[in-house]
Amino acid sequence: MSPIASTAPSASPWLSLGEASSLLGITPATLRRWADHGDVAAFVTPGGHRRFARAAIEALVPHHPTRRPLTGLGDSATRVARVYTRSSAARRSAASVGALSEVDRAEFKDRGRRLLMLLLDHLAEEKRPRSGTKLAEAVAAASEYGRRAASLGASLSETVEAFVRFRGAFTGELAAIARRRRLDTQEATALLVEADGAIDRLLVALMNGHSERPS
């Protein structure tokens, strides 16, 4: 009997949304958002499915051991926090957390600004691996944000909606920082992937904090 020759197909030069996001280690929703903003090239098939060039996605895969430090990012923290505090996203976030007084709204804007500063300080650390101190502070602050929102009568959905607005403003400003600082593609991708992971932790902490409302 003659042996059967291997017929394993070569890797396709195109990746689906799920395949590309898995290769990058991010969620499909994040990659879809990047594609919508033009940060990652993609095309849509006649059937409505996104496709990404394998070579382009593989070039984005961060190589942490060889990545140079993101020096100088911390210099942008105060400016970004000031921009966020004045932004319409910050005002909508504060306004959406229940029927708040002006004092309460100002408090939640300050809480959002503190979360932003802690996240930027965490991402600006040049030490590898990062100490995690600032992220731990941010997680604690997010948990307290959730508890405070619950104590004021805000529902979980209102609280999460406010946080989602914060997330959108934060990632937008972070992408702008990456462009201004001329980070290369791998550095910018690694930064955004790490930021998304950190924000996911904050969201979980916020939801857990909201569930701990006093009886």
Average pLDDT? 75
* CATH topology group of the largest domain: Globin-like
Highest CATH level, the class of the largest domain: Mainly Alpha
How many helices? The count is 9
Please give the number of β-strands.
Answer: 3
Low-confidence stretches: 1-9, 64-70
Binned strand content: under 5%
Key features?
Globin-like, 9 helices, Multidrug-efflux Transporter Regulator, Chain: A, Domain 2, 3-stranded antiparallel beta sheet, 3 strands, 215 residues, mainly alpha, disordered N terminus
What can you see in these coordinates?
With 215 residues, this protein is mainly α. The protein has 2 domains: 14-61, Multidrug-efflux Transporter Regulator, Chain: A, Domain 2; 66-211, Globin-like. Helices cover 64% and strands 4% of the residues. It is built from 9 helices and 3 strands; from the N terminus they run E-H-H-E-E-H-H-H-H-H-H-H. Strands 1-3-2 form a 3-stranded antiparallel sheet. It starts with 13 loop residues before the first strand and ends with a helix. The model is unreliable at 1-9 and 64-70 (pLDDT under 50).
Summary, kept brief:
By secondary structure, this protein is mainly α.
